[in-house]
């Protein structure tokens, strides 16, 4: 078995075969690929669901080829990030035999997840209407870029949605070009929304026996996730712009240059600001009419930034982080990713887990830990991301002889 980094309370870790997750007994037929769908089904798999990943012959999920970087077997780390705890079956959905095998898999499943371009599953005979007519209890989750209406033909790529959905318009320096977030944030947010919709639909099915269609799309998910920025437009007609690392409604709430590297300071109230002023050696700032309240500080953001920049430039980011946190001011250096994992380790938070080996040389698969802590049914790390078609024979035998095997791979 693998090992768990940073699990002081035992609520997350690599569990043995007898452990039961919160979603134990739930089977998901996963026809999705790339990120939004696979991320959603991985989270559900971590919580105990049996996820069967349906892949194309020869190539599988597109992200298998998205490298560098790759692991020791040449599988892209992108694919590995969203596909643990799943079993891979290769089905050719362009053939009658492949479609029959897919329908047999769905007949044994509680949930179907797909993110093909709208209309594709219907053309294959695997649309929500047809399958739910056969299986009324099926929860069918469809993930698209821009919905199934007028935007159905628009490809749903994260970069495109960040651009047309307004996120890039508020990201970057005021005097510079719009920039995207450093990860496919819209895909991740949409995957989380898909999880929520699936779980809500399952709760309804538990009460009524009826499944339903769950639809989420990247654009709608982004607009919802724009929260205060979107609300500024919806309520007040304000079209926000780029402020770099500053906040449109709070100050100081941004990064500053310390002597060695940037530091983030997040002052959320007047008490914290007074503590900040004291800690940097400018206690009079809290009584200055320009900075007395948050509204004042936002109005005089540039002047306040100039004063703080001079003070913070006198020492390094680690010095200021220690001093400010001790004073009750939220602050911390802008870490690289290795430093971020080290920080989580220092705090005793789950960071990286080693999953059971599934490679020829027996080396384990390293994964980023699931962040959800459940006291009674913790996240499970049962299977590494599968090699393409790793479980095809096992799954097809089960669907052809459903009474000879159990519903769980454990």
TrEMBL record:
UniProt xrefs under SUPFAM superfamilies: CoA-transferase family III (CaiB/BaiF)
One MF annotation (Gene Ontology) recorded for this entry: transferase activity
InterPro entries: CoA-transferase_III_domain (IPR050483), CoA-Trfase_fam_III (IPR003673), CoA-Trfase_III_dom3_sf (IPR044855), CoA-Trfase_III_dom_1_sf (IPR023606)
A Pfam family recorded for this sequence: CoA_transf_3
The entry's keywords: Transferase
Residue ranges of the TM segments: none
Region (Disordered): 358-387
Classification via Gene3D superfamilies: Crotonobetainyl-coa:carnitine coa-transferase, domain 1, formyl-coa transferase, domain 3
PANTHER family listed in its UniProt record: SUCCINATE--HYDROXYMETHYLGLUTARATE COA-TRANSFERASE
Protein name: CaiB/BaiF CoA transferase family protein
């Amino acid at each position: 078995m693998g090992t768990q980094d940073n699990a002081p309370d035992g609520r997350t870790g690599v569990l043995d075969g007898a452990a039961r997750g919160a979603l134990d007994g739930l089977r998901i037929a996963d026809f999705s690929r790339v990120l939004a769908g696979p991320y959603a089904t991985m989270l559900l798999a971590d919580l105990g669901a049996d996820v069967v990943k349906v892949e194309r012959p020869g190539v599988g999920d597109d992200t298998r080829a998205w490298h560098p970087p790759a692991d020791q077997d040449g599988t892209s780390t992108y694919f590995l990030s969203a596909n643990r705890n799943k079993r891979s079956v290769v089905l050719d959905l362009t053939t009658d035999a492949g479609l029959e095998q897919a329908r047999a898999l769905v007949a044994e499943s509680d949930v179907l997840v797909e993110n093909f371009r709208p209309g594709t599953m219907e053309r294959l005979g695997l649309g929500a209407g047809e399958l739910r007519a056969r299986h009324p209890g099926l929860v069918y989750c469809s993930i698209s870029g821009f919905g199934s209406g007028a935007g159905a033909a628009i490809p749903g790529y994260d970069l495109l949605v960040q651009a047309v959905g307004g996120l890039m318009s508020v990201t970057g320096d005021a005097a510079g070009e719009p920039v995207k977030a450093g990860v496919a944030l819209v895909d991740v947010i949409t995957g989380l929304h898909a999880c929520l919709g699936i779980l809500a639909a399952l709760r309804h099915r538990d009460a009524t026996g009826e499944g339903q269609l769950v639809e989420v799309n990247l654009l709608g998910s982004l607009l919802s996730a724009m929260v205060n920025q979107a609300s500024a437009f919806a309520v007040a007609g304000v079209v926000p712009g780029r402020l770099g690392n500053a906040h449109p409604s709070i100050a100081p709430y941004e990064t500053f240059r310390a002597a060695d590297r940037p530091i983030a300071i997040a002052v959320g109230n007047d008490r914290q600001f007074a503590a900040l002023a004291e800690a940097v050696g400018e206690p009079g700032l809290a009584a200055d009419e320009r900075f007395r309240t948050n509204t004042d500080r936002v109005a005089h953001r540039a002047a306040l930034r100039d004063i703080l920049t001079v003070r913070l430039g006198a020492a390094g980011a680690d010095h200021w982080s220690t001093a400010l946190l001790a004073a009750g001011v939220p602050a911390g250096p802008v870490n690289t990713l290795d430093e971020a994992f080290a920080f989580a380790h220092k705090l005793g938070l789950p960071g990286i887990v080693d999953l059971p080996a599934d490679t020829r040389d027996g080396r384990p698969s390293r994964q980023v830990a699931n962040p959800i802590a459940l006291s009674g049914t913790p996240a499970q790390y049962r299977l590494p991301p599968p090699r393409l078609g790793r479980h095809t024979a096992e799954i097809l035998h089960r669907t052809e002889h459903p009474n000879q095997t159990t519903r769980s791979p454990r």
